[in-house]
Specification:
The protein is α+β, with helices and mostly antiparallel strands. It is built from four helices and eleven strands; from the N terminus they run αβββββαβββααβββ. 20% of the residues lie in helices and 33% in strands. The strands form two sheets. A seven-stranded mixed β-barrel has the order 1-6-5-9-8-7-11. The longest helix is centred in the first third of the chain and has 16 residues.
Length: 171
């Protein structure tokens, strides 16, 4: 996981350079809640889902124990990508939660996010794009390797599109 640690440090430095105060209470919004029944396919926005403790998003093919139970991606990063690839939709990158207002890739590993009763902990920033990544094959690039964030569910509950979430602790 050394590449992810380096990536995380870079993101922290970038957030400080850009004036992001990691100690301030930060609030964001859930723009989409996405699942797929099979791995390797785009996820569909279903509007709401139950997140199960130490498991992930109910009904999603990637759910299970481990440190990558739920994936998050910034709505702003997706919208930037859409400028050159307008057919890209929320869920196209395989992300479970599309969020706005806070770029989760700028938060350090160990940060906890609360959305209603749900409590998530960021466990990984970035990932290797698998060789079958449809977006990378078609466009030559993908934003998940640098902007995808993964977490585990510490406290379960329901998350809905439009819900607010907040950073409740940073490590």
């Amino acid at each position: 996981n050394v590449p992810h640690r380096r990536l995380n440090k870079r993101h922290i430095k970038e957030s400080l350079r850009n004036g992001v105060n990691m100690a301030a209470k930060e609030i964001g919004k859930i723009e989409a809640v996405c699942v797929s029944r099979t791995k390797g396919t785009a996820k569909q926005n279903i509007g709401q889902a139950i997140l199960k403790e130490d498991y992930g998003m109910q009904g999603d093919a990637h759910a299970g124990s481990g440190h990558r139970q739920v994936s998050l991606l910034s709505a702003e990063k997706i919208e930037e990508f859409q400028k050159t690839e307008p057919e890209i939709r929320y869920g196209s990158f395989g992300e479970n939660l599309v969020v706005s207002g806070i770029d989760p890739a700028l938060l350090p590993i160990g940060t906890r996010l609360r959305c209603g009763t749900v409590l998530l902990e960021i466990t990984q920033i970035g990932k290797e794009c698998h060789s079958g990544c449809t977006i990378a094959r078609r466009t030559g690039t993908c934003i998940m390797p640098t902007n995808g964030v993964f977490g585990r569910v510490l406290t379960e509950g329901t998350i809905r599109t439009g819900d607010c979430f907040e950073v409740v602790s940073n490590k």
